[in-house]
Amino acid sequence: MDQAHNPDVLALEECNGFTQKSLEELAATWGHPYAVIVKENGYPTGLTSKYPIADIRKINENMTHGFIMAKVENYNIVVLHLNPHLYKKRRAEIAQVVKNISLQPDKKNWVIMGDFNSLSPLDKSRIKPDVQVARQQAAAQRNPKIENLVDGQQIDYQTQQTMLDAGFVDAGRRYDDLQIVQTKKSVIASDSRIDYIYISKDTEKKLISCQFIYDDFTKKYSDHRPVIMELKQ
Length: 233
Hints:
Blueprint: E1 9-12, H1 20-29, E2 34-37, E3 46-49, E4 53-59, E5 67-72, E6 75-81, H2 87-102, E7 110-115, H3 129-142, E8 149-150, E9 154-155, H4 158-165, E10 169-170, H5 171-183, E11 195-199, H6 201-204, E12 207-212, H7 216-221, E13 227-231
Helix pairs in contact: 2-4
């Protein structure tokens, strides 16, 4: 953990090899006395926090990697990792996530974050479709079980559209739009991001920043770049 960022809450993907106990022990080293892992096999998601994690739900049924729903202070948190290889399965998984959220009595202060393994329609102007389609077609040729393209030809935007249709705000894109207006400069360096933080509309007014962390550590230790968001108290 980079102590310079010192987050209050940390969402983790692919906690391979971790148990509840070992995740608690590791989280304690960066000042988080609370931790939750969705399961102890496969590619589990995890959540650690400076503050008590309450009302914990671990949903693994009908999910490839599972997702966590919990309450931290006055925020409703979801940590997810959607299917990486099948667009139809991703669509079903995100529908299940959104349905679970819709059934909760508290409609405010939602933060949904993780690896969505999909592209956003809001990024269409940044994405080079020919490159993306060719890349996925090549992957499917290597492994016929991979079906990330609609009808083998088109980028699937529906997973992200489901979040937008449900009324959630893409925090990274919202912050980027503000930066473009204010400084004429984009802070989203990736044209093919698959990691997102979504927030409910009431939380949008609290948004201070949301962007990728680009440094030597993240370049070396992961093929993804962490996304960090700061909200007003």
